[in-house]
């Protein structure tokens, strides 16, 4: 997609720079460089407008009439990649409202409190028991990456202790993430994502069919039993699509969230000491600051549905807008000391890590609880937990969803 000539590109990325060029690299110096140019600005290589201003990002997300979810252009192959059926990310208008209400019911605060006891705590203990040997561990691969996929499998009534399945889920989800990161435009990644989706369906479908006929106390059973009363037409494809999105969204993002929070804690011994002395509000604030500072999902795509403006910049119908949440969450017009950890921010949850508006993350409370329980378990078990300075240091890895890894630590 090319820009229309009447937009008169008011601001452009520096020559040969693009938001797509920071795989496995620290993007924040680039974000600050282009912030100085202004927001929004045109990224010629990404063929999109980059929005870095916090208020602009929030306003765009809240106006889906003008700035549509990128899946509005989804063809049948993209729908297959996302699982099809009753999939909340593919839906719009009244259908989306129904699906959102249903997801919020599944993931209500009261439900998440129960999940903490029945699922999250036992799984964190299961994983933590495995790293308690030998005095050293790598907390990204052996801890953070092990918890969320097991939690979502447990919630779906699937075997959370199947190591091979957990590892394969992460690989398959990453294939889909790579396609999303391309703006749904890379044909090679599209083919790999389609194959990954088919494999995920094959894993999930036997459980979807079994719970239809023999319900139990799990998400899949609740989908079959409760979705029709919520106005969602249910058949096998609809149930599979709804469960696939839970399966996908409940895994990768929280892996990175746990890793980033652990890095923030491990990188600053004074902060570690503060959290050890008071885990109540300071730990909650640490989690929010890690979400704000590192923003697991670096950016979101939107498609402009009518000629409009963002700030002083004209945006033409059909153009792509990339909301750079990771930059907006360090907007100095929004935050004092935006690159610093501040456990006393007046509104700690007012960030863009989970989005704003009707597309904000319905599983945000589940993610926060998983992050908290994962940190608390390590603090409970290891009194001298610290980065291993003799091992390779943490660095940013990946692009679209990213975190700090590896996390080599000494346990005591």
Automatic annotation (TrEMBL):
InterPro entries: Cyt_P450, Cyt_P450_B, Cyt_P450_CS, Cyt_P450_sf. The keyword Lipoprotein does not apply. Keywords: Heme, Iron, Metal-binding, Monooxygenase, Oxidoreductase. Transmembrane segments: none annotated. It comes from the Bacteria. GO terms for molecular function: heme binding; iron ion binding; monooxygenase activity; oxidoreductase activity, acting on paired donors, with incorporation or reduction of molecular oxygen. The keyword Kinase does not apply. It holds the Pfam family p450. Belongs to the cytochrome P450 family. This is Cytochrome. The lineage of its organism: Bacteria, Pseudomonadati, Pseudomonadota, Alphaproteobacteria, Sphingomonadales.
């Amino acid at each position: 997609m090319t820009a229309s000539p009447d937009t008169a590109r008011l601001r452009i990325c520096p020559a040969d720079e693009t938001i797509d060029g920071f795989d496995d690299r620290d993007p924040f110096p680039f974000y600050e460089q282009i912030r100085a140019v202004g927001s929004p600005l045109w990224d010629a290589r990404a063929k999109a407008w980059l929005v870095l201003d916090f208020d602009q990002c929030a306003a765009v997300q809240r106006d889906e009439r003008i700035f549509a979810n990128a899946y509005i252009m989804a063809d049948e192959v993209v729908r297959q990649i996302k699982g099809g059926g009753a999939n909340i990310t593919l839906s719009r208008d009244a259908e989306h409202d129904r699906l959102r209400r249903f997801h919020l019911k599944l993931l209500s605060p009261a439900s998440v409190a129960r999940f903490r006891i029945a699922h999250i705590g036992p799984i964190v203990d299961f994983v933590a028991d495995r790293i308690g040997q030998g005095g050293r561990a790598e907390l990204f691969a052996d801890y953070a990456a092990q918890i969320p996929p097991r939690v979502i499998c447990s919630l779906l009534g699937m075997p959370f202790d199947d190591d091979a399945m957990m590892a394969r889920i992460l690989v398959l989800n990453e294939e889909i993430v790579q396609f999303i990161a391309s703006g749904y435009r890379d044909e090679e990644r599209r083919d790999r994502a389609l194959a990954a989706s088919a494999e995920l369906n094959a894993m999930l479908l036997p459980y979807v069919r079994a719970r239809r006929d023999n319900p139990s106390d799990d998400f899949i059973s609740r989908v079959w039993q409760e979705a029709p009363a919520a106005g969602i037409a249910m058949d096998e494809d609809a149930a599979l699509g709804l469960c696939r999105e839970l399966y996908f969204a409940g895994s990768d993002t929280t892996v990175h969230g746990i890793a980033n929070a652990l890095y923030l804690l491990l990188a600053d011994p004074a902060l570690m000491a503060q959290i050890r002395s008071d885990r109540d509000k300071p730990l909650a604030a640490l989690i929010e600051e890690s979400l704000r500072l590192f923003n697991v999902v670096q950016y979101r795509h939107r498609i402009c549905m009518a000629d409009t403006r963002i700030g002083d910049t004209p945006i033409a119908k059909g153009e792509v807008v990339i909301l750079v949440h990771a930059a907006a969450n360090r907007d100095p017009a929004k935050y004092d000391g935006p690159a610093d950890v501040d456990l006393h921010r007046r509104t700690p949850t007012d960030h863009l890590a989970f989005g704003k508006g009707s597309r904000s993350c319905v599983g945000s409370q589940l993610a926060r609880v998983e992050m908290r329980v994962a940190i608390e378990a390590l603090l409970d078990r290891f009194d001298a937990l610290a980065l291993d300075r003799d091992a390779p240091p943490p660095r940013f890895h990946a692009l679209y969803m990213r975190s700090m890894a590896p996390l080599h630590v000494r346990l005591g």
